[in-house]
Amino acid sequence: MNLLKASHIIFGLILSTFALYSYFMAFLVWPSSEEAIAKAGSFGDTFGVLTSLFSGLAFAGLILTVLLQRQELKESREIFKKQKFEDAFYRLLDFHQRNLNAISIKGDVLNPDNSNLKPGVDTLNLLLKKLTSETSSHTFYLKNESTAPLYEQQLFTKIQSILTPQARYLGTLESLFFLIEKELEDPRERVIYWKIIISQLTSVEKKYIFFQCLVAPPNNLTRRLIHESGVFSDLFSGAHLRPRHHKLYEKIHGIKYIKPHLYSDKPYSQTEIEEIRIKHGDIIRDLRKKERQKQSNLPDQKENTNADP
Fold first, then answer.
1. Does the structure show a pLDDT above 50 at 308?
2. Which end of the chain has less Cβ packing within 10 Å, N or C?
3. pTM (2 d.p.)
4. What pLDDT shows up at residue 63?
5. How many angstroms separate the CA atoms of 183 and 207, rounded?
6. How far apart are CA 1 and CA 183, in angstroms?
7. Where are the extended beta strands (E) located within 63-157?
8. d(CA 176, CA 82)
9. Where are the domains of the chain?
10. CA distance linking residue 165 with residue 220, whole number of Å
Protein backbone atom coordinates (compact mmCIF):
# COMPACT_ATOMS: atom_id res chain seq x y z
CA MET A 1 0.00 0.00 0.00
CA ASN A 2 1.47 3.36 -1.00
CA LEU A 3 1.43 6.46 1.18
CA LEU A 4 -1.26 8.24 -0.82
CA LYS A 5 -3.71 5.37 -0.48
CA ALA A 6 -2.95 5.04 3.24
CA SER A 7 -3.60 8.76 3.80
CA HIS A 8 -6.98 8.48 2.05
CA ILE A 9 -7.99 5.58 4.29
CA ILE A 10 -6.90 7.36 7.50
CA PHE A 11 -8.72 10.59 6.72
CA GLY A 12 -11.78 8.63 5.65
CA LEU A 13 -11.84 6.85 9.01
CA ILE A 14 -11.57 10.18 10.85
CA LEU A 15 -14.49 11.71 8.95
CA SER A 16 -16.56 8.55 9.42
CA THR A 17 -15.94 8.62 13.19
CA PHE A 18 -17.05 12.25 13.48
CA ALA A 19 -20.15 11.53 11.40
CA LEU A 20 -21.12 8.55 13.55
CA TYR A 21 -20.52 10.55 16.73
CA SER A 22 -22.74 13.41 15.51
CA TYR A 23 -25.48 10.96 14.57
CA PHE A 24 -25.26 9.28 17.98
CA MET A 25 -25.49 12.63 19.84
CA ALA A 26 -28.52 13.68 17.83
CA PHE A 27 -30.16 10.35 18.60
CA LEU A 28 -29.31 10.69 22.31
CA VAL A 29 -30.86 14.13 22.85
CA TRP A 30 -34.01 13.51 20.76
CA PRO A 31 -36.59 14.36 21.93
CA SER A 32 -34.94 17.33 23.65
CA SER A 33 -35.25 17.54 27.43
CA GLU A 34 -33.16 18.94 30.25
CA GLU A 35 -32.36 15.44 31.52
CA ALA A 36 -31.36 14.19 28.08
CA ILE A 37 -29.17 17.22 27.45
CA ALA A 38 -27.52 16.81 30.86
CA LYS A 39 -26.79 13.18 30.10
CA ALA A 40 -25.47 14.10 26.70
CA GLY A 41 -23.16 16.73 28.25
CA SER A 42 -21.74 14.18 30.69
CA PHE A 43 -21.37 11.68 27.90
CA GLY A 44 -19.62 14.25 25.70
CA ASP A 45 -17.07 14.96 28.40
CA THR A 46 -15.89 11.39 28.07
CA PHE A 47 -14.74 12.13 24.53
CA GLY A 48 -11.65 14.00 25.72
CA VAL A 49 -9.70 10.85 24.97
CA LEU A 50 -11.19 10.85 21.48
CA THR A 51 -10.09 14.45 21.01
CA SER A 52 -6.54 13.50 22.03
CA LEU A 53 -6.70 10.59 19.62
CA PHE A 54 -7.70 12.84 16.76
CA SER A 55 -4.94 15.29 17.67
CA GLY A 56 -2.49 12.41 17.44
CA LEU A 57 -3.97 11.35 14.14
CA ALA A 58 -3.59 14.90 12.85
CA PHE A 59 0.09 14.81 13.81
CA ALA A 60 0.39 11.40 12.17
CA GLY A 61 -1.19 12.88 9.05
CA LEU A 62 1.42 15.61 9.05
CA ILE A 63 4.18 13.02 9.27
CA LEU A 64 2.46 11.02 6.52
CA THR A 65 2.41 14.11 4.31
CA VAL A 66 6.13 14.68 4.88
CA LEU A 67 6.87 11.05 3.98
CA LEU A 68 4.70 11.32 0.88
CA GLN A 69 6.55 14.42 -0.27
CA ARG A 70 9.84 12.67 0.41
CA GLN A 71 8.77 9.73 -1.76
CA GLU A 72 7.68 12.06 -4.58
CA LEU A 73 11.01 13.88 -4.34
CA LYS A 74 12.86 10.57 -4.59
CA GLU A 75 10.87 9.59 -7.67
CA SER A 76 11.55 12.99 -9.23
CA ARG A 77 15.27 12.54 -8.62
CA GLU A 78 15.19 9.09 -10.23
CA ILE A 79 13.37 10.49 -13.28
CA PHE A 80 15.89 13.35 -13.52
CA LYS A 81 18.77 10.87 -13.18
CA LYS A 82 17.32 8.72 -15.97
CA GLN A 83 16.84 11.74 -18.22
CA LYS A 84 20.39 12.89 -17.48
CA PHE A 85 21.74 9.43 -18.37
CA GLU A 86 19.80 9.23 -21.63
CA ASP A 87 20.91 12.73 -22.63
CA ALA A 88 24.56 11.81 -22.03
CA PHE A 89 24.15 8.42 -23.74
CA TYR A 90 22.65 9.76 -26.96
CA ARG A 91 25.10 12.67 -27.13
CA LEU A 92 27.99 10.20 -26.85
CA LEU A 93 26.36 8.02 -29.49
CA ASP A 94 26.20 11.03 -31.79
CA PHE A 95 29.87 11.87 -31.08
CA HIS A 96 30.77 8.26 -31.82
CA GLN A 97 29.12 8.46 -35.25
CA ARG A 98 30.86 11.76 -36.00
CA ASN A 99 34.22 10.30 -35.02
CA LEU A 100 33.56 7.33 -37.31
CA ASN A 101 32.83 9.62 -40.25
CA ALA A 102 36.01 11.59 -39.50
CA ILE A 103 38.33 8.57 -39.78
CA SER A 104 40.69 9.30 -42.64
CA ILE A 105 44.07 7.78 -43.43
CA LYS A 106 46.64 8.96 -45.93
CA GLY A 107 46.70 6.95 -49.12
CA ASP A 108 50.32 5.86 -48.75
CA VAL A 109 49.10 3.07 -46.49
CA LEU A 110 46.98 1.49 -49.19
CA ASN A 111 47.86 3.07 -52.52
CA PRO A 112 51.01 4.64 -53.92
CA ASP A 113 49.56 7.95 -55.14
CA ASN A 114 49.28 9.23 -51.53
CA SER A 115 45.72 10.45 -52.07
CA ASN A 116 43.20 10.76 -49.24
CA LEU A 117 40.83 7.88 -48.91
CA LYS A 118 37.10 8.26 -48.44
CA PRO A 119 36.59 8.75 -44.68
CA GLY A 120 34.49 6.61 -42.36
CA VAL A 121 33.48 2.98 -42.84
CA ASP A 122 35.10 2.79 -46.29
CA THR A 123 38.49 3.59 -44.80
CA LEU A 124 38.14 0.90 -42.14
CA ASN A 125 36.96 -1.57 -44.79
CA LEU A 126 40.00 -0.93 -46.97
CA LEU A 127 42.30 -1.41 -43.98
CA LEU A 128 40.61 -4.70 -43.13
CA LYS A 129 40.97 -5.86 -46.74
CA LYS A 130 44.67 -5.04 -46.58
CA LEU A 131 44.96 -7.03 -43.37
CA THR A 132 43.27 -10.03 -44.99
CA SER A 133 45.51 -9.76 -48.04
CA GLU A 134 48.74 -9.65 -46.04
CA THR A 135 47.82 -12.48 -43.65
CA SER A 136 46.30 -14.88 -46.20
CA SER A 137 49.77 -15.94 -47.37
CA HIS A 138 50.47 -17.28 -43.86
CA THR A 139 47.33 -19.38 -43.40
CA PHE A 140 49.16 -22.56 -44.43
CA TYR A 141 50.70 -22.53 -40.94
CA LEU A 142 47.22 -23.41 -39.61
CA LYS A 143 47.30 -26.84 -41.29
CA ASN A 144 49.35 -28.11 -38.37
CA GLU A 145 48.80 -27.26 -34.71
CA SER A 146 52.54 -27.12 -34.13
CA THR A 147 52.99 -24.26 -36.61
CA ALA A 148 49.74 -22.41 -35.83
CA PRO A 149 51.54 -19.97 -33.45
CA LEU A 150 53.51 -18.68 -36.45
CA TYR A 151 50.26 -17.53 -38.10
CA GLU A 152 48.94 -16.09 -34.83
CA GLN A 153 52.14 -14.10 -34.31
CA GLN A 154 52.00 -12.77 -37.86
CA LEU A 155 48.31 -11.86 -37.45
CA PHE A 156 49.05 -9.84 -34.31
CA THR A 157 51.91 -8.06 -36.03
CA LYS A 158 49.82 -7.11 -39.04
CA ILE A 159 46.84 -5.95 -36.95
CA GLN A 160 49.08 -3.68 -34.89
CA SER A 161 50.76 -2.22 -37.98
CA ILE A 162 47.76 -1.90 -40.31
CA LEU A 163 44.75 -1.34 -38.03
CA THR A 164 46.06 1.66 -36.18
CA PRO A 165 43.86 2.48 -33.15
CA GLN A 166 41.54 5.39 -33.87
CA ALA A 167 41.72 7.16 -30.50
CA ARG A 168 38.62 9.35 -30.72
CA TYR A 169 36.44 6.61 -32.23
CA LEU A 170 37.49 3.98 -29.68
CA GLY A 171 37.42 6.60 -26.90
CA THR A 172 33.74 7.47 -27.39
CA LEU A 173 32.89 3.78 -27.66
CA GLU A 174 34.66 3.14 -24.36
CA SER A 175 32.84 6.09 -22.78
CA LEU A 176 29.50 4.63 -23.86
CA PHE A 177 30.35 1.27 -22.31
CA PHE A 178 31.58 2.89 -19.10
CA LEU A 179 28.51 5.14 -18.83
CA ILE A 180 26.20 2.12 -18.99
CA GLU A 181 28.18 0.23 -16.35
CA LYS A 182 28.45 3.19 -13.98
CA GLU A 183 24.96 4.68 -14.19
CA LEU A 184 22.73 1.63 -14.61
CA GLU A 185 22.45 -0.87 -11.78
CA ASP A 186 19.79 -3.11 -13.33
CA PRO A 187 21.42 -5.67 -15.69
CA ARG A 188 18.25 -5.74 -17.80
CA GLU A 189 18.49 -2.01 -18.44
CA ARG A 190 22.16 -2.37 -19.36
CA VAL A 191 21.35 -4.96 -22.00
CA ILE A 192 18.80 -2.59 -23.58
CA TYR A 193 21.38 0.16 -24.09
CA TRP A 194 24.05 -2.32 -25.14
CA LYS A 195 21.74 -3.50 -27.90
CA ILE A 196 21.16 0.11 -28.98
CA ILE A 197 24.91 0.52 -29.46
CA ILE A 198 25.17 -2.81 -31.31
CA SER A 199 22.34 -1.83 -33.65
CA GLN A 200 24.32 1.26 -34.71
CA LEU A 201 27.48 -0.66 -35.62
CA THR A 202 28.15 -1.88 -39.13
CA SER A 203 29.77 -5.26 -39.79
CA VAL A 204 32.99 -3.43 -40.71
CA GLU A 205 33.06 -1.63 -37.35
CA LYS A 206 32.37 -4.85 -35.46
CA LYS A 207 35.29 -6.53 -37.21
CA TYR A 208 37.59 -3.59 -36.51
CA ILE A 209 36.59 -3.50 -32.81
CA PHE A 210 37.11 -7.28 -32.55
CA PHE A 211 40.69 -7.07 -33.81
CA GLN A 212 41.40 -4.06 -31.58
CA CYS A 213 40.18 -6.02 -28.54
CA LEU A 214 42.21 -9.03 -29.67
CA VAL A 215 45.55 -7.19 -29.67
CA ALA A 216 44.88 -4.51 -27.02
CA PRO A 217 47.30 -4.27 -24.06
CA PRO A 218 46.49 -6.11 -20.80
CA ASN A 219 43.78 -4.56 -18.58
CA ASN A 220 42.31 -2.69 -21.55
CA LEU A 221 39.12 -1.01 -20.28
CA THR A 222 37.13 -1.35 -23.51
CA ARG A 223 37.81 -5.08 -23.71
CA ARG A 224 36.97 -5.59 -20.02
CA LEU A 225 33.66 -3.78 -20.37
CA ILE A 226 32.75 -5.83 -23.45
CA HIS A 227 33.61 -9.09 -21.67
CA GLU A 228 31.56 -8.16 -18.59
CA SER A 229 28.58 -6.88 -20.58
CA GLY A 230 27.21 -10.33 -21.37
CA VAL A 231 26.60 -9.40 -25.02
CA PHE A 232 29.97 -10.46 -26.44
CA SER A 233 28.47 -12.88 -28.97
CA ASP A 234 25.72 -10.43 -29.98
CA LEU A 235 28.27 -7.65 -30.46
CA PHE A 236 30.40 -9.60 -32.93
CA SER A 237 27.57 -11.43 -34.66
CA GLY A 238 27.53 -10.54 -38.35
CA ALA A 239 31.14 -9.33 -38.34
CA HIS A 240 32.10 -11.98 -40.93
CA LEU A 241 34.97 -13.26 -38.81
CA ARG A 242 36.56 -16.61 -39.51
CA PRO A 243 36.27 -19.44 -36.95
CA ARG A 244 40.05 -19.37 -36.48
CA HIS A 245 39.82 -15.77 -35.26
CA HIS A 246 37.16 -16.71 -32.70
CA LYS A 247 39.24 -19.67 -31.54
CA LEU A 248 42.30 -17.47 -31.20
CA TYR A 249 40.34 -14.93 -29.15
CA GLU A 250 39.07 -17.69 -26.85
CA LYS A 251 42.58 -19.09 -26.54
CA ILE A 252 44.10 -15.75 -25.51
CA HIS A 253 41.29 -14.07 -23.56
CA GLY A 254 39.16 -17.02 -22.45
CA ILE A 255 35.92 -15.67 -23.98
CA LYS A 256 34.03 -18.07 -26.24
CA TYR A 257 31.99 -16.81 -29.15
CA ILE A 258 28.59 -18.51 -29.33
CA LYS A 259 27.08 -18.31 -32.78
CA PRO A 260 23.47 -17.06 -32.57
CA HIS A 261 20.86 -19.60 -33.57
CA LEU A 262 19.02 -18.46 -36.68
CA TYR A 263 15.44 -19.61 -36.41
CA SER A 264 13.48 -19.74 -39.65
CA ASP A 265 9.77 -20.38 -39.33
CA LYS A 266 8.13 -22.19 -42.25
CA PRO A 267 4.47 -22.96 -42.94
CA TYR A 268 5.11 -26.71 -43.43
CA SER A 269 7.48 -29.24 -41.92
CA GLN A 270 10.04 -31.04 -44.06
CA THR A 271 8.12 -34.27 -43.55
CA GLU A 272 4.93 -32.72 -44.96
CA ILE A 273 6.82 -31.41 -48.00
CA GLU A 274 8.29 -34.86 -48.71
CA GLU A 275 4.84 -36.44 -48.47
CA ILE A 276 3.51 -33.93 -51.01
CA ARG A 277 6.41 -34.72 -53.37
CA ILE A 278 5.71 -38.46 -53.15
CA LYS A 279 1.91 -38.22 -53.33
CA HIS A 280 1.79 -35.74 -56.21
CA GLY A 281 4.93 -36.77 -58.09
CA ASP A 282 3.08 -37.06 -61.41
CA ILE A 283 1.65 -33.55 -61.12
CA ILE A 284 5.07 -32.12 -60.21
CA ARG A 285 6.74 -33.80 -63.22
CA ASP A 286 4.01 -32.52 -65.52
CA LEU A 287 4.37 -28.97 -64.19
CA ARG A 288 8.15 -29.09 -64.63
CA LYS A 289 7.77 -30.38 -68.19
CA LYS A 290 5.42 -27.54 -69.09
CA GLU A 291 7.76 -25.00 -67.51
CA ARG A 292 10.74 -26.34 -69.53
CA GLN A 293 8.70 -26.15 -72.74
CA LYS A 294 7.68 -22.61 -71.89
CA GLN A 295 11.29 -21.61 -71.29
CA SER A 296 12.46 -23.22 -74.53
CA ASN A 297 9.84 -21.28 -76.54
CA LEU A 298 10.80 -17.90 -75.13
CA PRO A 299 13.54 -17.08 -77.73
CA ASP A 300 11.13 -17.87 -80.62
CA GLN A 301 8.48 -15.62 -79.10
CA LYS A 302 10.98 -12.79 -78.83
CA GLU A 303 12.02 -13.20 -82.47
CA ASN A 304 8.40 -13.18 -83.60
CA THR A 305 7.72 -10.08 -81.57
CA ASN A 306 10.68 -8.27 -83.16
CA ALA A 307 9.55 -9.30 -86.61
CA ASP A 308 6.12 -7.74 -86.28
CA PRO A 309 5.81 -4.26 -87.89
1. no
2. C
3. 0.66
4. 81
5. 28
6. 29
7. none
8. 15
9. 3-88, 90-253
10. 13
